Amino acid sequence: MDHPYLKPGPGDGAPLYFQLYRRYRDAIATGKLGAGDRVPSVRSLASELNLARGTVELAYQMLTSEGYFIARGAAGTFVSPHLEPLGGSALPTAAPAPQPPVHRDSFAAAGVPRPFQLGMPALDAFPRKTWARLAGKSLRAMDPASMSYPEPAGFMPLRHAIATYLGISRGIACTAQQVFVTSGYRAALDLVCRTLIEPGAEGWFEDPGYPYARHFLTSIGMRLAPIPVDEEGLDVNAGVRRAPSARFAVVTPTHQSPMGTTLSLPRRLALLEWASQQQSWIVEDDYDSEFRYHGRPLPALKSLDRDDRVLYTGTFSKVLFPGLRLAYLVVPEAHIDRFAAAADLLGGPGSVPVQTTVAEFMEQGHFARHLRKMRALYAERRRFLVDALAQVFGEELYVQPQAGGIQTLAYLGGAAARQGDVRISDAARTQGLAVHALSRWYADKPLRLGLLMGFTNIADTATAIALSQRLKAAIDSL
Ligand SMILES: Cc1ncc(COP(=O)(O)O)c(C=O)c1O
């Protein structure tokens, strides 16, 4: 088989694997290769082009992980049959158009999940059969309750299941009536703002902190005071100095996003004390507390909240999958009616059959089993990535040790530090690696440079090494 268009060209400074990768993409874009076409095996292409097998393997891995190729075991490797027509010209490989401050991981041709994508659970390890059985059952039932308008505060059996889970796992004593199901975390923030916070109010927001929540809150007119974070989590004293009479504070106490630290007990008590004195609200964003690899999970801040100042939020995005668009909010008993009125205005969190499936998944014990399995799996996958980064980068990257979570934070050293995390993440993204720059998570001047990387979909050491090498190549190309 002859593939002249694949031969690395003279004078191209890019590494050979990347040249090969780019040539395949161009061949697909210009129609030389069509959807469903078989491509040569790694071995035969390596010998045909006189390249090392590892070089071809790396190019194939990139093309597979970005959705251009599909591997069908012994049958061989094929151009994905699902590719959209790509038009007549070669795909651009030059610098990307200017990006927004934080990139949205897109669902475009790059494939899902993208390498290093943040916030994604392990899609290959989801118990699809069990889920499909429960979902099929709830869809087939077609009972009038699930065909009618949904309860705006959420499907009651799901609210019960969440209240039970929170009592056991997070030390939160609440009734099902206090639980409001929402379509994602930002919808929970929306509900809090509509119900308890005056438009234009000032609030504390961790710096660095979760950019999507920051943008959402500023977009609805909230004024955010960036409050620094250190090894004990949010610096409460700095908050008191900077915005003493703020009306609210948004915090990630279990596992600060993105630094991974835990809010210390003295700070927890100081934060609660401040909120009680000021009659301000604390939004506790407990987005990934379920994944902790050393020691026992800490109880939620909410479990220490004697004066009912904490609005607790959790999400199903990490523990099940983000496409569900389901999160929840626990509200103080005294304000249930006000929250119910606001939820009424918004019309509820969506599909009843989906909420029924989640409720059954929890009630029948599948949820607890899935979490147990994912804890072990993520500890292993995290190690794959941390070891691979150490092997490939040596002292250029230093991975912050963290007790939990589903992403790693690696600080930059050596040559990488001189390039800066923004340039590196932009370069990585042009090569399909969904790495985030820590700098972009700051509202004030960044104090540290680093890269945030998801590891949950890195299934083995070889993939971790191949991805780390691609990242290194992206950095070296700068
Ligand atoms: C810090 C933080 N909070 C909350 C969420 C949950 O958001 P959602 O429920 O909209 O998926 C995420 C998801 O990535 C997150 O990283």
UniProtKB/TrEMBL annotation:
Gene3D superfamilies attached to this UniProt entry: Type I PLP-dependent aspartate aminotransferase-like (Major domain) (3.40.640.10), Winged helix-like DNA-binding domain superfamily/Winged helix DNA-binding domain (1.10.10.10)
CDD domains in the cross-refs: AAT_like (cd00609), WHTH_GntR (cd07377)
Keyword annotations from UniProtKB, A to Z: DNA-binding, Pyridoxal phosphate, Transcription, Transcription regulation
Domain HTH gntR-type: 14-82
Pfam family, one: Aminotran_1_2
Keyword Transcription regulation: yes
InterPro entries hit by this protein: Aminotransferase_I/II_large, HTH_trans_reg/aminotransferase, PyrdxlP-dep_Trfase, PyrdxlP-dep_Trfase_major, Tscrpt_reg_HTH_GntR, WH-like_DNA-bd_sf, WH_DNA-bd_sf
Domain of life: Bacteria
GO molecular function: DNA binding; DNA-binding transcription factor activity; pyridoxal phosphate binding
The keyword Transcription regulation is annotated on this UniProt entry: yes
Family: In the C-terminal section; belongs to the class-I pyridoxal-phosphate-dependent aminotransferase family.
PANTHER family according to UniProt: HTH-TYPE TRANSCRIPTIONAL REGULATORY PROTEIN GABR
Record-given protein name: DNA-binding protein
